[in-house]
Amino acid sequence: MAELIFNLLCALVDGARTFLTPFIQKVFVDPLAGKQLEKKPVCIFQMEHYASVRGEHVNPVFEASKDDPPHYDDGFSGNGYSNAEHRDLRPSVVSAFGHNTLDRAPNIDFYRNAGSVSGHRAIRPSLQELHDMFQKVSVNLSPATELGSVLPPEEKGGFVKFGWIKGVLVRCMLNIWGVMLFIRLSWVFGQAGAGLGVVIVLLSIVVTSVTCLSMSAICTNGVVRGGGAYYLISRSLGPEFGGSIGLIFAFANAVAVAMYVVGFAETVVDLLEENNAIMVDQQNDIRIVGCITVVLLLGISVAGMEWEAKAQIFLLIILLVAIANVFIGTVIPATKDKNSKGFFNYHESIISENFLPEFRDGETFFSVFAIFFPAATGILAGANISGDLKDPQAALPKGTLLAIFITGITYLGVALSATVVRDATGNLNDTIVEGMSCNFSAACDFGYDFSACATKKCSFGLMNNFQVMTMVSGFGPLIIAGTFSATLSSALASLVSAPKVFQALCKDNIYQGLKFFAKGHGKNNEPIRGYVLTFIIAVAFILIAELNTIAPIISNFFLASYALINFSCFHASYAKSPGWRPAYKYYNMWLSLFGALLCCVVMFVINWWAALLTYGIELLLYIYVTVKKPDVNWGSSTQAVTFISAVNNTLVLSGVDEHVKNFRPQCIVLTGAPKTRPALLDLAHSLTKNYGLCITCEIFIVRGSRTDKLQELNTNLESHQAWLRSNKRKAFYAAVASDSLRNGSLSFLQAAGLGRLKPNTLMIGFKRDWRAAGAAAIQGYVGILHDAFDFEYGTVVLRISQGLDISHVIKANGKLTFSKYSKMLCLTCTFLLSGPATLPQSAEMAKVNQRLVDASTQFQKKIGKGTIDVWWLFDDGGLTLLLPYILTTRKKWKDCKLRVFIAGQPGRIQQDKEEMESLLKKFRIKYAEISVVSDVSVRPSSESMKVFEDMIEPFRLHEGTKEMAQAESLRKDSPWKISDAELETFEEKTNLQIRLNELLQESSRAAKLIIVSMPIARKESVPDHLYMAWLDILTKNLPPTLLIRGNHKSVLTFYS
């Protein structure tokens, strides 16, 4: 229902706009101004087809327009292409170098964004085009074609763009010369005195000037689009800060409309009161006049920016005449009537009396400052319509600084502390008669006694009459016109600013629920819906009908905005990013920081609870945006500072020696594409999350030309990292192209990491198909384990009976997530099993895939109550014990208890158990049970031996049953096979693995996870296939099992 009413209001406003525009054109607009520019034909040579698709980073409800923020759609995938981008072959051209070349000379069009308004974007040749291929094509092309241009968007005429005077200077002066100039400035100087009154004005000027310097630096550091303060802050500090302050700033501008309109209404009601024409009562009349006024202002605003700008010029002329009228009035000899109201022209005695403060009615310096400060908040009036400026970078600094200077001088000059006393009765008879003493005020020096004001409330003087300037001026009606002009122009500027800022915020889709307000109308993309919302907010605050109540509300909001603008400049300067190159040089990072702190201090001294409320709202909005993580990347200074901090911290770590207490698992995980082995990734993530580094690694095997593999590698870098991020896996993705799996992993083992952020543990899945694989594949796999031991890595091998690789499942089901695929697979299985009996193979395959997916995703769920059985058979430095302990600290594993199994001798089982209990107690590792296994050395059963013998049978030489020549020939042809001598040499170790599997079957069959000390094979001694058989028989028919071998350096300590 509410949305229906809102849409109806929008339709009514749009209709009013349609109705008013022709009328305003006839009355205010030069007939030539409405003519559209004649479209001229443009000759474009299209050299390539270019489609920008941002893959997983598309914001589906982002609405493109001319005021959109920069959209950086160049892919950083190494080859210059985004994932779905296609580029046709580019012909070579004759360049300034005198020969055919694909290379292009530097040109500004190469650096434009896709939606650039100032010119169309050209696309330079990619590195792959220059490096990988060359086809000579003789083509006569124009210079424009040599740029490799894409078709520009169709030009549209009729856009209204303002220069620095009309768009910034005039707008800022009108907004600063607001309601306070004519109806509150005299009251401010009456309360604070001339001395502190000047301090109030100067303090406001300091705050706004420092903010303007910071704003100038930010807005000259690149193209500025629409959105004003929101745009500047969001593109500098990021969407979190920009989104929170943008909403507050837009709301503050909407409330400012109410403040200025109430100031206008006060003046109108005073006139009605003087003429005995009050409609209801004073307060209700302010509400009535205010509501009527804001409706008229809304009509002017929705008619378009051009009409609004022309109205501003008209109001400025009136305002300048009114200000001049005040100065003239102060030197015209005062009449008796004006004397009775406290005006005596310039006199030293009056300025002396009014120099010191005289706070009344509970006012203080900061409460008076809070009421005056909104008069200085118009400095962002030009920035708020930055999208409608011809050259925002040049216009904003020049226009805003000049506006601050002119208005500051005006405020100090117009102050009437030297001409008007604080209290006056307005009674012509309150004169001093002969023989009568008078010392109430400086008026006594001029024959007037206003001592009656000490006992009763007077109606005139600086403290009592808000219309002092009308009385002082040379011609009173001009001041009334100036008051109307100042209040209406400021209200009009705020009424335009608030929707523009709000529309820019909604277009970025930071708050998805507000996307309704992003839509614009007409040639200037006017935010009609934003106008209606601003109108509703303004009317709500107009109903308060108290100017002194409304003003402090927006003071804190504006100060918070100014604080963040200053902090944005400081932060960008502090980050020292190469991209921070503002054209405006007259700023200082420490001055900006001072400005930010000053704004914060002033907020709290004005009203501490309002400041806390402002920052509380901002914090809540910041948290909301942070949690929602809007899919935008504006290259903020926050990213730059994060990078600097990371580099500096890494360098600091590099200068610190490693200590056992600070050991943490930092893993290289050979997952391939991260999504293809989820169980391995999930377990690694459980071990390293908030503890250490996790790098998921993929090796692209290159056969012949590596071009295709390199393109696939570069393309996958960003997409796989995005997949990790979207699945909340705190890990990095890395990839290499190599001629073999072992050489690729060798690259990771040697070069992965940075400083102390260097991996120390290798995680790899068990090669389940080792018996079907070729000898080279087995040699490569075992070689990886040997390399890990050589480089002193801890080594972890995960085995799950169903397997780890689900790439074929993902390939068959596209981008389905594991949970969605699991549900779909259940339905498929049900259909196949209940369907015709002609599909037994498909049903069986569905069952296999179901079991595989369930096993692969088991570590994504909370693990139920059970045990993690740790078979700590060999002291490897403690890694075999530390990793399961880390798992028990995780939320998913917290219901699992540790059971520790150790090997012991039959005669000292109790002693071995007590020693282990003592050691675990010193390590402060909780356990549920310690078991001493004393029959490890018992010979395995014949059934287990038979299983092992069958396992290795295809890989044995059996040279003992053959003649010597035949045996030598077999050994030469298959050197990787297991000889009888080797089998005999390692018989005890073989029996140990078989026996351990029997013990594991007996004691740990029900465990949620089994951890076993991993056997080591001596290089050039144990055949690769025999070693694989050891690992296979050791972990056969068991729950998920981790084989762990540390690098035999202590990772546990009991010292403090």
UniProtKB/TrEMBL annotation:
<dbReference type="InterPro" id="IPR018491">
    <property type="entry name" value="SLC12_C"/>
</dbReference>
<dbReference type="InterPro" id="IPR002443">
    <property type="entry name" value="SLC12A1/SLC12A2"/>
</dbReference>
<feature type="transmembrane region" description="Helical">
    <location>
        <begin position="365"/>
        <end position="387"/>
    </location>
</feature>
<keyword id="KW-1133">Transmembrane helix</keyword>
<dbReference type="GO" id="GO:0055078">
    <property type="term" value="P:sodium ion homeostasis"/>
</dbReference>
<keyword id="KW-0732">Signal</keyword>
<feature type="transmembrane region" description="Helical">
    <location>
        <begin position="245"/>
        <end position="265"/>
    </location>
</feature>
<keyword id="KW-0472">Membrane</keyword>
<feature type="transmembrane region" description="Helical">
    <location>
        <begin position="586"/>
        <end position="610"/>
    </location>
</feature>
<feature type="transmembrane region" description="Helical">
    <location>
        <begin position="313"/>
        <end position="334"/>
    </location>
</feature>
<dbReference type="GO" id="GO:1990573">
    <property type="term" value="P:potassium ion import across plasma membrane"/>
</dbReference>
<keyword id="KW-1003">Cell membrane</keyword>
<keyword id="KW-0915">Sodium</keyword>
<protein>
    <recommendedName>
        <fullName>Solute carrier family 12 member 1</fullName>
    </recommendedName>
</protein>
<feature type="transmembrane region" description="Helical">
    <location>
        <begin position="399"/>
        <end position="421"/>
    </location>
</feature>
<keyword id="KW-0813">Transport</keyword>
<feature type="domain" description="SLC12A transporter C-terminal">
    <location>
        <begin position="844"/>
        <end position="1056"/>
    </location>
</feature>
<keyword id="KW-0868">Chloride</keyword>
<feature type="signal peptide">
    <location>
        <begin position="1"/>
        <end position="15"/>
    </location>
</feature>
<dbReference type="Pfam" id="PF03522">
    <property type="entry name" value="SLC12"/>
</dbReference>
<dbReference type="GO" id="GO:0008511">
    <property type="term" value="F:sodium:potassium:chloride symporter activity"/>
</dbReference>
<keyword id="KW-0739">Sodium transport</keyword>
<keyword id="KW-0325">Glycoprotein</keyword>
<dbReference type="GO" id="GO:0055064">
    <property type="term" value="P:chloride ion homeostasis"/>
</dbReference>
<feature type="transmembrane region" description="Helical">
    <location>
        <begin position="475"/>
        <end position="498"/>
    </location>
</feature>
<feature type="domain" description="SLC12A transporter C-terminal">
    <location>
        <begin position="677"/>
        <end position="816"/>
    </location>
</feature>
<dbReference type="GO" id="GO:0006884">
    <property type="term" value="P:cell volume homeostasis"/>
</dbReference>
<feature type="transmembrane region" description="Helical">
    <location>
        <begin position="285"/>
        <end position="304"/>
    </location>
</feature>
<keyword id="KW-0633">Potassium transport</keyword>
<dbReference type="GO" id="GO:0055075">
    <property type="term" value="P:potassium ion homeostasis"/>
</dbReference>
<dbReference type="Pfam" id="PF08403">
    <property type="entry name" value="AA_permease_N"/>
</dbReference>
<keyword id="KW-0769">Symport</keyword>
<dbReference type="Pfam" id="PF00324">
    <property type="entry name" value="AA_permease"/>
</dbReference>
<dbReference type="InterPro" id="IPR013612">
    <property type="entry name" value="AA_permease_N"/>
</dbReference>
<keyword id="KW-0630">Potassium</keyword>
<feature type="domain" description="Amino acid permease N-terminal">
    <location>
        <begin position="91"/>
        <end position="138"/>
    </location>
</feature>
<keyword id="KW-0812">Transmembrane</keyword>
<feature type="transmembrane region" description="Helical">
    <location>
        <begin position="195"/>
        <end position="224"/>
    </location>
</feature>
<feature type="transmembrane region" description="Helical">
    <location>
        <begin position="528"/>
        <end position="547"/>
    </location>
</feature>
<dbReference type="GO" id="GO:0016324">
    <property type="term" value="C:apical plasma membrane"/>
</dbReference>
<comment type="similarity">
    <text>Belongs to the SLC12A transporter family.</text>
</comment>
<feature type="transmembrane region" description="Helical">
    <location>
        <begin position="553"/>
        <end position="574"/>
    </location>
</feature>
